[in-house]
Amino acid sequence: MFNWAVFLTLVSISIPGTTISSIMLNKKSASGKREVPIIVAIILQMVFLSIFVALGVALINKINLNAENIYISSWIEAAIVGIGCSITHILIYYGFFKPLLGKAFYKIEKHRNSIGIANRILYASVVEELIFRWGILSLLLWITQSVLISIVVSSLIFTLAHYHGSSIVGKSFTLYSYIFIGNMLVGIICGWQFYDNGIFAAILVHMCFHLTLYPFEVKVLKK
């Protein structure tokens, strides 16, 4: 039986993020082009997201998820994992890729900062997890019956989805390598937490990732 309570809960928590995202996209729209009304943009995003949320809800009883902990089992675990994931990324990004990226490094920092921390916390962390983990990973798990394959493949899809936006700062093997490693890291960690700890755990991991990374970005841009 379709769990409407879970569906409405997950759709509801995405409203702030889709609203902020739609407002920002509206402001960044090119001059001379007809802008889509913000309310229409919000509705379209909510309809799109609802498809993935409904998919995940429909599959709750068909995949090996702990029905009693659909949302989250341990907030502390998710927070620690999220901070650890971000620190790992920081070491890889600033320690290894920074000198190799050259001018693209500062373009990445400016591009990521232009998205805004609120948008990254409320939209990227919530909406992306509902799409890629709750919806897509659940579907893959139902099809393959393999946790490992589902997490890896959904992480690959998650990574590919980030290539278009990141490619505006440049096109090089080093940049694409960073995009791949960085997003696969987040995708795999969030996928594991979703399966083992609940969808809110995946969201919290993603939030902690951005919150931990943000001060480093600000410091770099001030130089």
UniProtKB/TrEMBL annotation:
Protein name stated in the entry: CPBP family intramembrane metalloprotease
Keyword line: Hydrolase, Membrane, Metalloprotease, Protease, Transmembrane, Transmembrane helix
Entry's transmembrane regions: 6-26, 38-60, 72-96, 117-136, 142-163, 175-194, 200-216
Domain CAAX prenyl protease 2/Lysostaphin resistance protein A-like: 120-211
Species of the source: Siminovitchia terrae
UniProt entry tagged with the keyword Membrane: yes
GO terms, biological process: CAAX-box protein maturation; proteolysis
Any Pfam family matching the protein: Rce1-like
MF (Gene Ontology): endopeptidase activity; metallopeptidase activity
